[in-house]
Design goal:
Elements lengths: L13 E6 L10 H17 L4 E7 L2 E6 L6 H21 L11 E4 L2 H13 L1 H4 L14 H6 L10 H4 L5 H14 L3 H13 L6 H11 L17
Antiparallel strand pairs: 1-3, 1-4, 2-3
């Protein structure tokens, strides 16, 4: 069966997801998270892929970024993968791949879905029960976007900047969005988008993507609605 193509447009955000093989853990100690983020930052800077939000969970990673061209996201992920996989294998006496196939990616409509995608990613650890509070989780960008904690990996997107003129007010408004949370339908739409690789956003956005890429982007429907989507 042929691989479904990933859809990229220069400087448009994408939600990138990569899971551990058979949903096994890919992070075991704090140092693992640290070295992954170090290599992710190097790849982000080298291949010009600004990162707006991220969350590292024990068995998967979520990244919201704006690749500068259609190849840069793949090169960034390959860059850290070529370093992180050997690191894990050497550190924990493992062999082979640690990832469940290729990473998944969904193009995001910045006007309608950027902030929701940020909230989805930065609250994922709490929704999955990995942490009790977003405030206490070390391995996401929440503190940078909601509290202004310095994080060299995070680059503010224009839609995030548009929340307010001052940094403090912007962080306050974003924290309020996180507190309100996402409707289950929104969570399901985001999850279906990255699982199927289908662009997430308005019909107008999807039509624009099809026009620019000269390809049909399809639909993200995956059958019956799920209960308690994550």
């Amino acid at each position: 069966m042929p691989r479904k193509p990933r859809f990229y447009l220069p400087d448009y955000p994408v939600h990138i997801v990569q899971r551990g093989h058979n949903q096994n853990d890919v992070f075991f100690e704090n140092d693992d998270y640290k070295v992954y983020l170090d290599w992710l930052q190097e790849g982000s800077e080298w291949y010009e892929v600004p990162i707006h939000a991220y969350a590292l969970l024990p068995n998967e990673i979520h990244i919201l970024a704006s690749p500068s061209d259609k190849e840069s996201a793949s090169r960034m992920m390959q860059y850290q993968g070529r370093r992180y996989v050997p690191y894990i294998n050497a550190t924990y006496a493992k062999t082979g791949t640690i990832w469940q196939g290729r990473y998944k990616a969904a193009l995001i409509d910045p006007e309608t879905s950027l902030l929701n995608s940020m909230v989805y990613i930065e609250t994922l650890a709490a929704r999955r029960g990995v942490t009790k509070s977003n405030l206490t989780y070390r391995w996401s960008s929440y503190k940078a976007n909601a509290q202004g904690k310095k994080n060299p990996l995070v680059v503010a997107h224009e839609q995030y900047k548009a929340l307010a003129k001052s940094d403090a007010k912007r962080q306050e408004k974003y924290a309020a969005l996180v507190k309100v949370g996402l409707d289950d339908k929104v969570v399901t739409a985001i999850q279906d988008a990255w699982q199927t690789g289908t662009p997430l956003g308005s019909d107008k956005f999807k039509q624009m993507v099809e026009r620019k890429l000269k390809i049909k982007v399809g639909h993200a429907k995956r059958g019956r609605p799920r209960k308690n989507p994550a």
